[in-house]
Structure formats: C-alpha cells, structure tokens
C-alpha cells in the first residue's frame, strides 16, 4: 500500500480503493450521524497514499479548520482500520477538488441530494446500503446474486428484475446497492431510484402542473429505473397506466428496470393483470425469512464495524435466536444495546440485555394470534367479537376494530393484506388507515393511549 496516487491508478486498483474509502465513509456516517456527515465530511476525498501515509483532502481551509480538531482522531482511527498497514492519515486542503471530478468523486457526490447531478427524479441513496455491507445467506443468496448481476452487466440480460419479500429483509438495501454499484462501474449511466409512492406523487404533480411531457421525458430517458415498494400503486389506476407505459418504453429501449414489492407480482392485488404479467416476465427473486445462522452473522458484522462498543458473543447469539421477525428489528435491538453501553459506560451482561430488550423479546416470542387480539379487544371495549368482522360503522365498534387492527400489525408478523382478510375481508388500505388513526390518537389523547398500553401489555 505505498505510493498509490489516485489519479495514476489502473482501474482495478481504483475500484479497490473506492471500495475501501466507501467503507470509511460508511463508518463515518455511523459514528457521527447523517447530518454531521453531510455538513462536514461529505466533501472529504481520498487523495493519495504515499509512504504509508493516507492523504485525504477537503476543498477549503474553512472545512479543514473544523474537521481536523473535531473529527480528525475518528477519521484517523477508521482509516487505519480500513486501510490496513497505513501509519497515519493526513488531511490536506485542495481547492481544485471543487471543480475536478473523477469517478470516485461522482460516486461520492451521490450521497448528497443537492449534488445528485443525474436526475432530480431520484431519491438520495444511503451510503450504508451497499453490497459490501450485505450479509449473504441461504434466504437471500439468489436475490443478492441477481442484484449483483444486474449491476455488473451493461447489457440488459433480464428485464425487469423483481425483488420481493416481507418487511425489513433487505429489499431497499439491495436496490441502493445496485444503484451504487452501477454508478461506480459505469458512472455515465443515468440511474434513478425512487419509491412507487414518490413516482405517483411526481405523476400527480405533473398532471396538476400540466407538465406531463416533462414527466414522461424524465422517466423515459433513464438507463436504469429502480422502483421500490411497488405495492403502493395498488388501486391507483392512472398511476399504473402511466407506469405501464414508462415500463414498456424502457424495455423497448433495452434499459434496465428493477422493482421491489412486499409480495410476488402475481399476488399484487389491485394491480392490473397486464402489469402483473409484465412484472413476472423477467427474473423474480424472493428474500425469504432469515435463519439463525444468517442473523448471527449479520450481528457479528455489525459488531466488527462498531469496535467502540463491545457486545459479547453470548448476547449476539441470544439476539439472533430470539429476534426472528426481520433484520430491521434485529438491528434496532443491537443499536439499543450499543446506546446503553455508551451511556452507562459499563460492560453489558446478558441479563441486562434481556431487560433492555424486554418488549422486543416478548413480541417475538409469544405468537399471539389475530383471533386472540380480536377477542381481547372486544372484551375490553365490551362489544361482540363478531363486530370485529362486521361492516358496522358506528364509532363504538369501528374504533375498537381499528385498535385491534393496529395491535395485529404490531404484535403479529402478519402482512397488511392478511390482517385485512382476517377482519371480515377488508382491504389492506383500510388496515393502513386504522393503524394511522390509532397512532395519531395515541399521540394526542392520553386516555386513549392508556387503553392501548394496557391492551398491549396483556397481549405480549
Ligand atoms: P426492506 O426494504 O426489505 O423492508 P431494508 O432493505 O430496509 O428492508 O432492510 C432493513 C434493515 O436491515 C436495513 O438497515 C438493512 O441494511 C438491514 N439488512 C437487511 N438484510 C441485511 C443483510 N443481509 N445484511 C446486512 N444488513 C441487512
Ligand atoms: Mg424497503
């Protein structure tokens, strides 16, 4: 690792260094938080490695005067960890960086929405969501492999790529990873990532502003279109129609389309048949529920990244065994423990960990059924259990029904459509509405929130 100059590298070396530097950025985001990173560290660039010293640069002395005293030690520690073998890190001022742009810089600039130069249509990408940070196991190896393939090849070999699976299993992570990887390999390709909800919002906005041609142009001129959570366009006919035409136009131009959803294309209720069959046409990859072994490896990889806080293996194994619902919850539990360790500044025991995560374990362990929730809630509010399924709209039954739907959402692993079905065949949008209503009452109405707390305690 001596005497590398970033501007004199062959492409393999550059790729390796890019990846390592990206790892540094990911670690920095995790240590200092998104907003401090964006304000102070997003313009930090890798400059050169000379005589085992890693040189980083910032575009102004204003920035370096702040960054060096405040973040210098952190940056040095992280760089030494990532770029194994370097002696130290130096931060220099290089005003030319502002104008100069190479692949590395374009790539880095993606983290910042305002400098996302390729398209105003795209949502920002999370630098932590990359292929390096994605832990592969049996449940996600196919999805991972096809996502990597979609990023690697310039030529489109399957279209569309559909990733589907339950909440918190890594769909968004993989989609961001594809976007990052394409930007790194072929920065000239225009990649647009957004949720189906945002697509709909943009579409409606363009209709309102009578600017539909600009909308069409924006989405039909991309090289890679990545749409997250396609289930949101269920029931939205005109958005589906527009999406269908965008889809066809991109496929005709041999542009890559990547879609995610919470269930397989054929199960997407409320989506037109012609669109569903189009979606099934390419490669459809499912992200399955994780197994113990993968959960443990995900936590271990988090523990390696976060060396400041020590969480013992027995605790990690306990988490992996008991938090089975999804990776997001697993990560949340781990973060809660780290925050605790940092606050109290004492080593963590398994017993303390159990106490801290008491609520999560209960929710994961006791598999309460929706029928039990309906029974408990109707007893509590003194209504007939059959009213949970009935079409009566009177507040006295409708509100308890909404409460039961909300509790079903948070205490079980059932999906929104499954919950709707068990409440007298209601649509998933009704469940969403109920959950939102209860959440907002919970915040504003103290006596209501007390009822919910009591019910929740009785269930989990
Ligand atoms: P989804 O979009 O499927 O609901 P996300 O992609 O948002 O789920 O994942 C939820 C969280 O779990 C994210 O923080 C993500 O980084 C993490 N995660 C999921 N799967 C993995 C994995 N295999 N390796 C590492 N992190 C993962
Ligand atoms: Mg997601």
Question: Could you walk me through the main structural features you see in this protein, from its secondary elements to its overall organization?
Answer:
This protein is of the alpha/beta class. It folds into four domains: 4-105, DnaA, N-terminal domain (GMP Synthetase, Chain A, domain 3), CATH 3.30.300.180; 141-287, 3-Layer(aba) Sandwich (Rossmann fold), CATH 3.40.50; 292-365, Helicase, Ruva Protein, domain 3 (Orthogonal Bundle), CATH 1.10.8; 370-459, Chromosomal Replication Initiator Protein Dnaa, Chain: A. The chain is built from 20 helices and nine strands. It has helices at 11-32, 34-41, 61-82, 103-109, 141-152, 171-185, 196-208, 212-220, 237-252, 273-279, 292-305, 313-322, 327-344, 350-356, 358-365, 370-381, 395-411, 416-422, 428-444, 446-459; strands spanning 4-5, 45-50, 53-58, 88-93, 161-165, 191-195, 224-228, 256-261, 283-287. The strands form two sheets. The chain has a five-stranded parallel sheet with strand order 6-7-8-5-9, with helices on both faces. A four-stranded mixed sheet has the order 1-2-3-4. Helix 3 (61-82) links the parallel strand 3 and strand 4. The relative contact order is 0.07. Mean pLDDT is 86; it is low at 99-119. The structure holds adenosine-5'-diphosphate and magnesium ion. Adenosine-5'-diphosphate binds next to helix 6 and helix 13.
